[in-house]
Design brief:
Length: about 140
């Protein structure tokens, strides 16, 4: 059994008929559909497309919590939208500092950005090769 299949089974067993289960499955299936990619970046726009017309914000939030916190199938990261430089993807230490302090220190300038929290957005990363690894059933 592959890791993503084990995660799907565990989620279905624990959360049963919760609609978030289907969202989790859609996200996992999408991630493993890109096996040649080292990592797959997913934004809220991508999640909305994957969830389809029946998109529900609460279901998506539950699905992300399950996949990020419980099963580590996705990793949350942050991107800062700089007015001059465009998107700047935060390194782990920069991200943690922002989470801990609530203030964004500009990654290239080293100064606190006024209103940085309003221009910092989450995105998620899946690693298809890890999800496709064989695991014990």
């Amino acid at each position: 059994m592959r890791r993503f299949e084990a995660i799907e089974h565990a989620i279905a067993d624990k959360w049963g008929s919760d609609p978030a289960v289907g969202v989790c499955r859609s996200i996992l299936e999408y991630a493993v559909s890109k096996p040649a990619e080292e990592s797959v970046m997913l934004t809220f726009g991508d999640f909305k497309k994957l969830a389809g017309a029946d998109y529900d914000q609460e279901e998506l939030q539950r699905a992300l919590a399950i996949l990020v916190s419980r099963y580590h199938a996705l990793e949350m990261r942050l991107v800062f939208m700089d007015e001059d430089e465009g998107p700047i993807y935060l390194e782990a230490d920069e991200q943690q500092d922002f989470i801990d302090t609530g203030k964004l220190t500009h990654p290239h300038r080293g100064v606190v950005v006024d209103g940085g929290e309003d221009r910092t957005f989450p995105y998620y990363v899946a690693k298809p090769q890890t999800l496709l690894e064989e695991v014990a059933a």
